């Protein structure tokens, strides 16, 4: 009987050692899931967690930490993310880090921050649009994550209706999120929309579809808090003049002349341009009336 116990013990020990070796091989080749599985089979949970952190599989690390009450992975994640500051490449690495950990709001905040930096640098609109789309997609992933959580709750609370569970989820979300994060979620696609309409107006002008360009330019005005005011109303004035909507053009020029950051010389340029356009318009109108 005793011999049998030792045989079982030896076989279990050998199995554990083999699993650890295999786990190390998987870890060295970047196969996190397989490595974690090996370590979990021989009850080496902390080693499994270390592998997740080492391979930047933070979502799995957070999951293990919650399931087995291990050390606070979120604080480790935060410290690691703090090191990824400075260049845009490092900030994007931090975005990837938070995304893998399922912290989509934090990831989106960084992306929108990068977009703001790029806006100040006056980067290409297409680049800015891509950044805003990336941030918005992260918010959508956050929403999808919440839907999955609500679905899991619904399985365990069959007596509650779907609407009640959804309401409960929204209330829980309100308590968890800050005001800034709530605003971020509500306006997730606004930046992408702004640059989409801005570029669409340019394309329509180049294609000669001036009426459509003017209508789109009016939509661009609604995103004045994101786009540069000077560019917005210059574009509107151009589109309005091209489509011969001079009332709209007049209002656009009035806005351009009243921008507080404009220097007197710049303001004078717009005033002269407006006078030239509307004097020509008055001349053509009087000529038409005379001929009539």
Automatic annotation (TrEMBL):
InterPro entries: Ift122/121 (IPR039857), TPR_IFT121 (IPR057979), TPR_WDR35 (IPR057361). Keywords: Repeat, WD repeat. Signal peptide: none annotated. It comes from the Eukaryota. Gene3D superfamilies: 1.25.40.470. Residues 186-281 form the IFT121-like TPR repeats domain. One of its GO terms (cellular component) is intraciliary transport particle A. One of its GO terms (biological process) is non-motile cilium assembly. This is IFT121-like TPR repeats domain-containing protein. It comes from Steinernema carpocapsae (Entomopathogenic nematode).
